[in-house]
Each structure stands twice: as C-alpha cells, then as structure tokens.
C-alpha cells in the first residue's frame, strides 16, 4: 500500500482523532445542532451552557453571519474565490454552498487540520459543475504553505475572500495572530477581502465559559476585546457597519436576530 493510497490516508486520519478530550470543531458542531460530535463534546457543551447559555446564540448567529458576508461578497462585490481557514465540521450552508448558490462558478478552498473535519471532507468536496471546491490538510501557523497549496485551485492574481471564522482565538498570542493574518493577506492581491468573526471578552458569562472550556483539556480558545478584533483589519478598508456584533452586521429584516451576543465580526477590503 503506497503512501498515496486513499485507504491508508483515511486510516491515518482516523488514528489522529482523540475522543477522550473535547474539541472546538465538534463542540461547535454540537451547539449548532450537528451530529458530528462525541459524548465528551456534549458533556462539555452542556456544562458550559449551564454556565453561559448565551454561547449557543454565539454559535448560531456566527454561522448566520457567514451566510450574509458570503452573499454580500459574491452578489455585491463580485468575489468568486474564497479561502476558508478553520473550516470546522460541515453543517448546512457551508461557504461553497452559499457562494455557488449565487454564483455557480465560484471556487472555494477549505483549510483545516482537525482529523475529524478531514474525515468528513467528502461532505464538503462537492461543487457545481461550473465551480470548484478543494480541501487542504494544513495549519493556520503555516500561511505560506496554505497560500502555495491554495494556488492549485485559486488564481491568486485575482481577488480572494479570506475567511477566518471563530478560529483565531486558538492563537494565544495576539501579535502572533495578527502576524498570521497579515502574512495571509500579503499573499492576496488588491481587491481581496478579509472576513473575521470571533467570540469576545464582552461579558462575565463569556469569560467564564472560555475559562471552563480551556480547563476541559481541549486546545485552549482565548476570547479577545473588540479593539483586538478590530486590530486584525488595520490597513484594510472596513465595509459598513465596521466591526460590530455578528447580529448587527447587515442583518436581514426577517432574521429576528436582534439578540446581543459576545461575538464580533468585520469585513475588510485590501486596497
């Protein structure tokens, strides 16, 4: 069996799945109503919901922000290429589904290093005949490798929307997180966009939920201030309404999402 044998690759991915500790992708999947999670994820989720029920709203409304941002970029800004880092587990309305619903020729590259996410990659590796969807087993900490691999699907001489949703909190050092975002954006041309959403330290409940999650044995996730979220967009042209709660970014009239949440977002254009 060669190292390129798909069965061997699948077995290697399965061997990397640790079901003894909660994982953010599976934990988030549980919160948005998915089924790709384990008992440890559900136990941790229920514990944190008891501490801070509002985290469920953060998960749900952050997902809805993804849809609005992608529709805006495709429908109003003409973006046809997306680089989605920290994809997470597939649920309804993934980036490629939203984009290709508006523009069937859209191309999407998903990036994640979580083995369970990779095991479910086939659910994401669908596309319209006119477009293309690809998946990279890669790490946020290797931006140059991501860009090089993404160039196999995307034309990096043309605008790309870089999506990093509910992922940057895993980078504990803020300046390092900013540096990784800057490196990725440096590899994309003028007219590209950065789309970020993340949980924020804007309530005692969210801080307590973050502390409980980090004490669970999972890879830590650090909530940041609104100013720190805004700092990721330095040098970019922020689309209205700027860096705001995910429920306040271009809400749709019939969404019924006026709820305040501890998650902020923004969409910025590279000049």
Structure in a nutshell:
Helices cover 40% and strands 15% of the residues.
Write the layout of secondary structure elements.
Layout: H1 6-15, H2 24-31, H3 39-51, H4 54-75, E1 81-85, H5 95-102, E2 107-112, H6 115-119, H7 121-124, E3 132-137, H8 143-150, E4 161-165, H9 174-186, E5 193-199, H10 204-214, H11 226-231, E6 237-238, E7 244-245, E8 263-269
Parallel strand pairs: 1-2, 1-4, 2-3, 4-5
Antiparallel strand pairs: 5-8, 6-8, 7-8
Tell me what you see in this structure.
The protein is α/β, with parallel strands linked by helices and 271 residues long. Helices cover 40% and strands 15% of the residues. It contains eleven helices and eight strands. Strands 1, 2, 3, 4, 5, 6, 7 and 8 form an eight-stranded mixed beta sheet that branches. Helix 9 links the parallel strand 4 and strand 5. Helix 2 packs across helix 3, helix 3 runs antiparallel to helix 10 and helix 8 packs parallel to helix 9. It is globular and about 45 Å long.
């Amino acid at each position: 069996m060669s190292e390129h044998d798909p069965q061997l690759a699948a077995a290697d991915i399965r061997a990397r799945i640790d079901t003894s500790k909660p994982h953010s992708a599976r934990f988030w999947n549980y919160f948005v109503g998915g089924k790709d999670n384990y008992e440890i994820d559900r136990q941790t989720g229920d514990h944190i919901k008891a501490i801070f029920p509002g985290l469920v709203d953060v998960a749900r409304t952050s997902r809805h922000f993804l849809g609005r941002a992608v529709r805006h970029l495709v429908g109003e800004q003409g973006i046809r290429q997306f680089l989605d880092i920290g994809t997470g587990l597939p649920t309804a309305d993934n980036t490629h589904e939203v984009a290709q619903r508006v523009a069937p020729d859209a191309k999407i590259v998903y990036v994640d290093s979580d083995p369970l996410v990779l095991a479910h990659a086939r659910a994401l590796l669908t596309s319209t005949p006119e477009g293309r969807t690809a998946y990279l087993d890669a790490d946020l900490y290797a931006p140059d490798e991501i860009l090089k691999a993404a160039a196999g699907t995307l034309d990096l001489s043309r605008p790309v929307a870089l999506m990093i949703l509910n992922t940057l909190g895993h980078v504990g050092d803020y300046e390092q997180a900013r540096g990784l975002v800057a490196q990725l954006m440096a590899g994309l041309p003028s007219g590209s966009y950065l789309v970020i959403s993340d949980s924020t330290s804007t309530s005692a409940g969210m801080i307590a939920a973050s502390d409980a999650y980090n004490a669970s044995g999972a890879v830590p996730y650090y909530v940041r201030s609104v100013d720190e979220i805004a700092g990721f967009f330095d040098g970019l042209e922020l689309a209205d309404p700027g860096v705001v709660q995910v429920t306040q970014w271009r809400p749709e009239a019939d969404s019924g999402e006026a709820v305040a949440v501890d998650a902020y977002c923004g969409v910025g254009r590279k000049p």
